[in-house]
Design brief:
Layout lengths: L13 H7 L10 H13 L7 E13 L2 E4 L3 E4 L1 H6 L3 E10 L3 H11 L3 H32 L3 E2 L14 H6 L10 E2 L5 E2 L3 E9 L43
Antiparallel strand pairs: 1-2, 1-4, 2-3, 4-8, 5-8, 6-7
Length: about 240
């Protein structure tokens, strides 16, 4: 499978790392912690081997409980079915930073360098999300030129989609040619890897860059960027979007 991130460097924003380690306002960070963040951000690119790809699946049908893709592939999720009701294609994204950065985090923990490990882990988390967003934005640019649109991003394990379907999706990939594998506990290896999907639609509306945190009810998630906005009950006024 082609590496669509070939030649890219992994990086993370200082403010994002600050937020992930518990400092919503970087100005409140002590100078030693700030210096440690800067050091790990400088180290990060040399520890990463970015790899990413996507694969398209024709959408055959969407019913109440899920969707069917070409080849008879079934994905069970009412929320996924609603998301994909206008889609013609589902695009599956996989991105990873490689093994080296996870090994370095483990070494830091083993050596009791806990602050360094926490900061590097946060930087790697932010970096793999940024690489996935790069693939999705490239998709948005591509489909926009064709007059098409996208749904928002979604993934197994998010609210309303059982994590078990990640195994169904991995079974469709050429895993022997891919530097990301799935273990028996449905965890991706290397650890700093992400899998996501986006639907491609005919309506010309680009929704993929919108923050998916709005639809996830894991309230205390440390990676949350925006408030959870549950779907309003029938007959009630929708919640006002408070995302920045």
């Amino acid at each position: 499978m082609d590496n669509l991130l070939q030649g890219m460097s992994a990086s993370a924003e200082f403010d994002e790392v600050s937020r992930l380690i518990g400092y919503p306002s970087p100005e409140r960070m002590s100078e030693p912690v700030r210096e440690m963040c800067l050091q790990q951000l400088v180290r990060l690119p040399s520890l990463c081997e970015p790899w990413g790809t996507w694969r398209d699946f024709e959408l055959r049908s969407a019913h109440q409980d899920g969707i069917e893709l070409a080849g008879g592939l079934q994905l069970i999720s009412r929320r996924l079915a609603k998301l994909m009701r206008k889609a013609r294609t589902m695009r599956l994204f996989v991105a990873t930073l490689g093994e080296a950065v996870s090994r370095e985090i483990q070494h830091l923990v083993h050596d009791a360098c806990m602050l360094e490990a926490m900061v590097l882990d946060a930087a790697a988390t932010a970096a793999v999300h940024a690489l996935t967003e790069n693939l999705i934005r490239r998709t948005c640019d591509e489909v926009q030129q064709r007059g098409l649109g996208t749904t928002t991003r979604y993934a197994p394990g998010y609210t309303g989609w059982n994590i078990g379907d990640i195994g169904v999706l991995f079974a469709t990939l050429e895993c022997e040619h891919m530097p990301v594998q799935l273990n028996a506990q449905l965890m991706m290896r290397p650890e700093k890897s992400l899998l996501s999907i986006v639907g491609l639609t005919d309506d010309g509306h680009i929704a993929a860059p919108l923050e998916q945190c709005r639809g996830c009810d894991l309230i205390h998630c440390s990676a949350r960027k925006a408030p959870y906005l549950p779907r309003p009950r029938r007959g009630l006024s929708p919640l006002r979007n408070t995302c920045p």
